[in-house]
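Supplementary Note 3. Input sequence used for the single-chain structure prediction.
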Amino acid sequence: MADWLAALDRRAELRAKAGLTRRLTPRPADDQMTDLAGNDYLGLATHPQVTTAAAAALSAYGLGATGSRLVRGSTDAHQALEDELAQWLGTDRALVFSSGYLANIGALRALVQPRTLLVSDAHNHASLIDGCRISGAETVVTPHADVNAVAAALAAAPGRPAVVVTESVFSVDGDLAPLARLHAVARRHGALLLVDDAHALGVIGPAGAGGVAAAKLSGEPDVVVTATLSKALGGAGGLVAGPAEFVRHLVETGRTFIFDTALPPAVAAGVHAALGLVRAGDDLRAELSDRVGLAVDRLRAAGLTVSVPDAAVISVTAPGPEAATTWAADCRDRGVAVGCFRPPSTPDSRSRLRLTISAGVPRAAFERAVDVIVETAP
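The predicted structure, written as discrete structure tokens, is reproduced below.
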């Protein structure tokens, strides 16, 4: 009976030798680390208006939603949030899920019909990859941001229903997908376009409405938008937005929606308050953009290999997984939290630090953090 546990130990040993051990590091409520690892891009997770709205809803509704959305889990807080999300994104309707992961899986499963072909970017997030797998549809993985490869995959499947699957701002290197060109190719072949806008929402586009809005694709009938509410909106949960007919289909058939306990009403209310701040947050986005530029300039001046960020994700190449782990640990020892991405989490087998810039970090602390990253570089 112990053989399976011994096998797990052996796998852990092999991961350790490859520098791929992962550990949980709890943080206290009064954490003093300078955060360049989290996704609170606009610093709204602790904004007084957000926490006050969440606290009021917590008092009114209680801790949890008490059921799935179709049983007792839908509240006025959910409806108000969904209505404003749809207005902001320029879609018929929006539907809130308990996580962005479940939103992606649910959306992809709902888009698949017999003979559907999914054309997925090689750098897509794990939730999109898993969504493609769980859907059961044939999936073609195309080279990163390669519009011609997408066109070729669609041309090779004439007459079949198809969905082009992409992030807007990619979560590993922070580059922006060629959304307008992908949409043009998809439409030419009668395919749909699903865009995970998680890292763009709140950061780019008019009123921070994301990459789809920036590409002038809002409300297009052949575009479905997914995202998480846990990044620039500072909360938790996920969303799917698009044509009313598709959202209705999700409500009636989407397993990750129907059979999951709803997002807590307090979180929905807090995110709704954050959404108002995001829509009026051009100054925050300007500060965020300025910080991204400053970080890239300093890192490159130090001779480091840095991605070209289109939003607030910066990728800094490390020599290997062990070097990346040591680099991140050295930063942490000096009070700076950074992301450490190593295979198999990276689609190109390249290790790197991932920096997620936040306008909510005090400016002096942010600049010091960039200096620490340079000073501890391998």
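Residues 27 and 237 are 21 Å apart (CA to CA). The chain has 15 helices and eleven strands.
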